[in-house]
Structures are given as C-alpha cells and as structure tokens.
Amino acid sequence: MPIPSDQLRYILGDGGHGWEILIRARQLAAAGDPPLNLCVGEHDEPTPPEIIAAMERSASAGHTGYAALEGTAGLRKALAERVSARQGRACGPQNILVTAGGQSALHYAFRAVLDPGDAAVVIDPYYVPYPGTIRAAGGVPRIAPARAENGFQPDFETLDAACDGARALLINSPNNPTGAIYSDETLEMIAEICIRRDLWLISDEVYDGMAYGRPHRSAAALPGMAERTLVVGSMSKSYAMCGFRCGWIAGPEEMVSLLFSLALNAAYGLPGFIMDAAEFALERPEIEARICGTFERRHAVALRALAGAQAARAGASDGAMYVMIDIRPTGLSGRDFAHLMLEEERIAVMPGESFGAAGAGHVRATLTLPDDQLDEALRRLAAVAEDLAAGRRSAAAG
Ligand code: PLP
Fold first, then answer.
1. Which residue(s) pair with 315 in the sheet?
2. Closest ligand 1 atom, CA of 175?
3. What is d(CA 117, CA 30) in angstroms, rounded to the nearest whole number?
4. Contact 71, 96 (CB under 8 A)
5. Ligand 1 pocket, 39 CB below 6 A?
6. What is the DSSP secondary-structure string of 257-299?
7. Which of 128, 81, 22 shows the shortest CA–CA distance to 233?
C-alpha cells in the first residue's frame, strides 16, 4: 500500500496501549474461566429500556435522515439547561455543540484550540486516550504529574511550570482513573494559571453526576473562566448510554459557532434518533439519579471492603466509577500486582501505570460489579496485598 500519513503515525505515539490485563481477562473469559472484572469503565447494567424505547419511537417516526449537525434544537436546549444548573451560570443552546460522545468532544476541543506543534498539558494519571487525542489535533501532550500523597490533586509549582508556553490545559474532575474530585482550592489555582497564562481550559466533566465524597464544581463557573473553557460532557456514564455515542461541548458562543465547520466536515452530526433518545433521558433526571445512585452505593461498598487495609488504600476516591488503590506497601508495581491478581486470584484490575507514571504502585478498580461481587473482589485484593506486605506471600509464587 502507499505510505500512511505521518499524521497517523504521530497519533499512535509509542504504540503502547496499557490494556494487556483487559485483553488477558477477555481471553480467560473466552476460555470459560472468567475473572471478576474490575477493568472496564462501562456499566454492568444495560441502558434503561425506556431510553431505548424512545430511540425506537423516534426512528420509527422517521427521524433517520440527516439531523441538525450542531444537535437538534430540543437536545441543545435540554443540555443548556443541564449545564446551567450544574455550573450555576447562564448557558443557552448557542453555547452547546452535540458530538459523538465525550471522545469526539475532546477531539473537537483540541482541534479548536491547538495549532500544529502547540503544547497541551495533561495531568497524570490520565484517561488513556488523552495524549493521542492531543496528537490527533496536531498538538504535543505535556505531562504534569499529580502526586498520590496529594490525593492526586495537582500542585501549583508542577502545574504552573508545565503550563509555561502551552496553549491549553486539560483537566478531568471527577477523575478517571483516580476518582479524585478537585477541591475549590485546586480549581481556583487552575483558574489563576489559565488566566495569567492566557490558556484554554478543556474541562472533561463526563463524570459530573458521580460525586460522592465532595461536590463537583465546574471550573467554567469560576470568575473569568467561562470565556476560556470548553466543558466536555457525555450521556455515556450518567445515563448508561456509552454505545449511543452522544456527548457535547459547552463553551463560548463564538467558539461553538466556529466549531460548526469542524462538525460539518468531520462527522456531519449525529443520528436524530440518538439525539431524541438523549433528550428524552435528560428530561428524566430520575434515571441519572438511579444510575449514579448505584455507583455511589458501590463506592461505599468498595471503601468498606478496603477499610483497615494498610497495604491497599483508596485514598483519593471521591467520585466517578473508579477507586484507585495504593498497593505500594506490597513492594510490587501496579503492573506486577495486577498480573498476580489476575493469574492467581482471577480478579482483573488495571495497573496504575497504564494511566501514566504518576499512577505507579496503584491499581484501578471499576465499580462495575454487583455489590456482593465487588465486595468479595476487593476484600480478596486487600488480603493479598496485606499478605504480600507482611511477607506471607511471594509475588513469584504464581
Ligand atoms: N473522558 C473520560 C475521563 C472518560 O473516562 C471517558 C470514557 O471512559 C470519556 C471521556 C469518553 O467517553 P464517551 O466518549 O463515551 O462519552
């Protein structure tokens, strides 16, 4: 074949994907030996049937042609109301662009604020696709570590230094993989850096409905931030609609209208029946409350299961669908511990290192099993960690 573009190779980066544990877990499952799977950030329960019925009604009624590429009027209005309520500031349909999931929103956001070669700062540990998404927009990801000792909140010196000469900063709170929710102090520090350095802030808030330990606050609501912030949202997590691929960008009207040309030339909008289903869901916040309530309950189950363990601690986890567990007292890397858990205990968790160097010595567990299985998996994980730390078990045994 002719030579693929340099651009495409650039997106791939070093080619490492960090999903080895997930792939192995799937192999075991296919071989009839399924592990307790705490690897994937996707609901174990299906999309609520009433949302699927709304989608079917819309498709049957003929909403299968090209739909408004910026999003249907009804959906943009419903999203603007949601964003206004969450951020405590006025936001209208003109501030909303509907996208194919939060992932497309991230892609569009970076295309909107980066020119080729511009740096965008990513806080480590991070959602795995972030660096590739920045590269896909021609940008250069610059990694700023957040330390476990700080509850994975970024610190001023590190972040400010990383932002020197950058064009954009990406934050994600509630956070995947750590579950951390940024404190008011952290958000104010971020706002101060963005304003002083004249940065765009891309604020990934796809877990905004999943805040348990402390309230979620959008950085866009801070003084001087609305005009420089693109908030990324999604129906995937809060409404168990991952496969619907429906997300959005909320931002300054001028930027949102500039983004129409990208939306036109990239995907030409979303299917109308998907957007109608999303609008239907947003008009029923009790669905979101139910789904997020399940994760809140499981979050408590997870913290109880790990309570008292010295070698498996869930320090930072305040929200989202994840608990990041510090297993450094075992002396193992997150990767070795995750492999041991999978091969010897048939429990699949992600190595913290998959999410960046700052995740070293941690594993991420998703809250995507029924309460009793989650409890069992994490109690066993904690017991293994305690045994390793006390020298009662050796990593080489498996
Ligand atoms: N951002 C974060 C932090 C995520 O964890 C995910 C999915 O796991 C996404 C964005 C993308 O979600 P989607 O494209 O399904 O909306």
1. none
2. 3
3. 43
4. yes
5. no
6. HHHHHHHHHHT----HHHHHHHHHHHT-HHHHHHHHHHHHHHH
7. 81
Residue 99 near residue 262, CB atoms below 8 Å? no
Instruction: Give the tens place of pLDDT for each residue, 169-207.
Output: 999 999 999 999 999 999 999 999 999 999 999 999 999
Ligand 1 pocket test: which of 127, 181, 248, 321 has the largest number of ligand atoms within 8 Å of its C-beta? 127
| Per-residue pLDDT tens over the stretch 337-374 | 999 999 999 999 999 999 999 999 999 999 999 999 99
Distance 54 CA to ligand 1 centre (A): 23
Sole residue written with tokens 């009433």? 50
Instruction: Work out whether the CA dihedral 38, 40, 43, 47 comes out positive or negative.
Output: negative
173 lines ligand 1 (CB under 6 A): no
Q: Is 65 exposed, middle or buried (0-12, 13-18, 19+ CB in 10 A)?
A: exposed
- What separation in Å is there between the alpha carbon of 102 and the centre of ligand 1? 5
Give the global pTM: 0.96
Helices marked H in 224-370 — which ranges?
253-266, 272-282, 285-306, 334-345
Report the SS3 class of residue 164.
Answer: coil
- From the CB of 130, is ligand 1 less than 6 Å away? no
Contact 127 CB / ligand 1 (< 6 Å): yes
